Amino acid sequence: MYAEAGIIRRIIEETGDTWAIVGLSANRQRAAYGVAEFLQSQGKRIVPVHPRGETVHGEKGYASLAEIPFPVDVVDVFVNSELAGAVADEALEIGAKAVWFQLGVVDEEAYARVRGRGLDMVMDRCPAIEIPRLGAR
């Protein structure tokens, strides 16, 4: 219901290649670290967003979405569901084109807000799983 194949494909193939990864730090044990590395291998530019603003995979990090000084196409969210709605609202504020909530991240009200503004959104899915499944780039 929150991950229509057409929307997934459109985000991956057409929305753009700059992905802000919210919750990405230099901690190699976290899922965000591996997913960001995978996205880079697929030609995506990753932008780490974490309160510490760490550089990850050679990309400068920022403490918030609002601090990123260039356009972001997709906001990929690796935070608890309780915090995800606020991140979705920030994604709308910065003019992102799509929002992607990772596996286990669910906020139906945020989904409705993002879709209501006309943006594509995927919830409770992982691009590192969906890209190979779709045979996408």
Mean of pLDDT: 95
In the sheet with the most strands, the strands line up as: 2-1-3-4-5
What is the H-and-E element order?
HEHEEHEHEH
Number of strands: 5
Note the beta-strand portion. 15-25%
Give a short account of the largest sheet. Answer: 5 strands, parallel
Helix fraction by DSSP (H/I, runs of at least 4): 25-40%
Cα shape = globular
Radius of gyration: 13 Å
Structural class: alpha/beta
For the termini, the CA-CA separation is 23 Å
Show unreliable segments: none
Number of helices: 5
If you had to describe this structure to a student in words, what would you say it looks like?
This protein has 137 residues and is an alpha/beta fold. The protein contains five helices and five strands. The chain has helices at 5-13, 31-41, 81-94, 108-116, 127-134; strands spanning 18-22, 45-49, 74-77, 98-101, 120-122. It has a five-stranded parallel beta sheet, sandwiched between helices.
Element layout with pairings:
Layout: H1 5-13, E1 18-22, H2 31-41, E2 45-49, E3 74-77, H3 81-94, E4 98-101, H4 108-116, E5 120-122, H5 127-134
Parallel strand pairs: 1-2, 1-3, 3-4, 4-5
